[in-house]
């Protein structure tokens, strides 16, 4: 895949807390050292925590058959729009339709979130997009429109953080009371009703639609793991001891799910203990990849966990910043990302990867 194609592909995804797009080349380089790239089209890649979709999308672009799992609808929306979808795209007529305000009675977003989280015009736009998604006959188009709604909601706010408490000042004209560094983002959000701006976002989303084989499942990965057949499992659970996804995306979750979600046990200070449950359930998968932050656990502790399940392990620590614009200098200096690759030395896939891949292709 060319560099320009990769950049275009990334534009389809929403900015996501903990997203891995910058780490994908490193992650898949480590896979290549165990299972050569030429074999990837015959292998199944499990992404156990779909999140913002970057790793699943990259795996699909590399030719893997992808199985993506998540428990949150915000992630499933990405999966249905881009990972599982190979051909359906947003059309300009879709954009012209949702951009036109027919002044219908207030719906969900306008009723519940205007003006405290969105201006009235923004809320009405979101309601129109979601209404069209509800009318869509196929899952791919529904996913694309719901992803468009999420992208628009994030773009309404500075630094893509949907919050109450500031945006209402746009409606009251109190621009001078908005932090200067955030004001431009809020003002740009006021222009999203314009068809040309909305179509630009739609084109970015369309750039992530390409051919590939994938399945998206809304489920608890720990419970589902024993039923999944895969060659590689990538685990990027919520990081222990840091801001939870459920807090960061509370309003998005309420809009998509109808309610806020309970905080994942992985996000607790002792959340690293949950990783043992993943490994126990994934014994049948030859190769594991784990990403985790350094807030509450060390690289050595994680390596010991993985080796405890009979895996050979390569562990890497790199400096990595999530949302650097919102992090203190101290945080930026301290933050580290751990990437561990563990493989079963006795697995047939490791000993004879070519034979295993040929057999799988023959069954298909």
UniProtKB/TrEMBL annotation:
A GO term, aspect molecular function: site-specific DNA-methyltransferase (adenine-specific) activity
SUPFAM superfamilies named in the record: S-adenosyl-L-methionine-dependent methyltransferases
Cross-referenced Gene3D superfamilies: Vaccinia Virus protein VP39 (3.40.50.150)
GO biological process: DNA restriction-modification system; methylation
Aminoacyl-tRNA synthetase listed as a keyword: no
Domain of life: Bacteria
Keyword terms: Methyltransferase, S-adenosyl-L-methionine, Transferase
InterPro entries: MeTrfase_D12, SAM-dependent_MTases_sf
Pfam families (alphabetical): MethyltransfD12
Keyword DNA-binding: no
Name of the featured protein: DNA adenine methylase
Organism: Eiseniibacteriota bacterium
């Amino acid at each position: 895949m060319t560099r320009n194609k990769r950049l275009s592909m990334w534009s389809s995804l929403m900015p996501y807390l903990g997203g891995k797009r910058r780490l994908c080349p490193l992650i898949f380089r480590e896979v290549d050292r165990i299972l050569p790239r030429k074999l990837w089209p015959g292998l199944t890649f499990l992404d156990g925590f779909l999140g913002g979709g970057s790793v699943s999308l990259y795996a699909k672009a590399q030719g893997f058959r992808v199985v993506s799992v998540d428990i949150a609808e915000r992630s499933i929306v990405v999966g249905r729009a881009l990972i599982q979808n190979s051909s359906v795209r947003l059309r300009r007529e879709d954009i012209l339709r949702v951009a036109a305000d027919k002044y219908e009675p207030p719906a969900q977003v306008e009723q519940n979130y205007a003006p405290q989280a969105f201006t009235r015009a923004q809320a009405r736009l979101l309601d129109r997009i979601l209404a069209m998604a509800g009318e869509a006959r196929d899952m791919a188009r529904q996913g694309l429109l719901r992803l468009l709604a999420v992208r628009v909601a994030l773009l309404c706010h500075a630094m893509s953080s949907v919050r109450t408490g500031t945006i209402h000042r746009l409606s009251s004209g109190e621009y001078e009371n908005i932090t200067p560094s955030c004001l431009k983002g809020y003002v740009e959000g006021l222009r999203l009703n314009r068809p040309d701006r909305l179509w630009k976002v739609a084109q970015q989303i369309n750039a992530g639609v390409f051919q590939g084989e994938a399945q998206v499942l809304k489920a608890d990965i720990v419970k589902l793991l024993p039923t999944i057949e895969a060659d590689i499992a990538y685990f990027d659970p919520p990081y222990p001891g840091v801001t939870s996804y459920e807090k960061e995306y509370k309003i998005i979750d309420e809009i998509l799910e109808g309610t806020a979600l309970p905080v994942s046990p992985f996000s607790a200070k002792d959340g690293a203990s949950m990783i043992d449950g993943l490994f126990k359930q994934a014994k049948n998968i030859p190769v594991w990849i784990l990403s985790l932050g350094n807030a509450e656990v060390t690289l050595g502790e994680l390596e010991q966990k993985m080796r405890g399940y009979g895996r050979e392990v390569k562990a890497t620590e790199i400096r990595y910043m999530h949302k650097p614009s919102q992090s203190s200098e101290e945080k930026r200096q301290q933050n580290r990302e751990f990437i561990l690759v563990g493989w079963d030395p006795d697995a047939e896939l490791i000993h004879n990867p070519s034979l295993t891949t040929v057999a799988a292709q023959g069954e298909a």
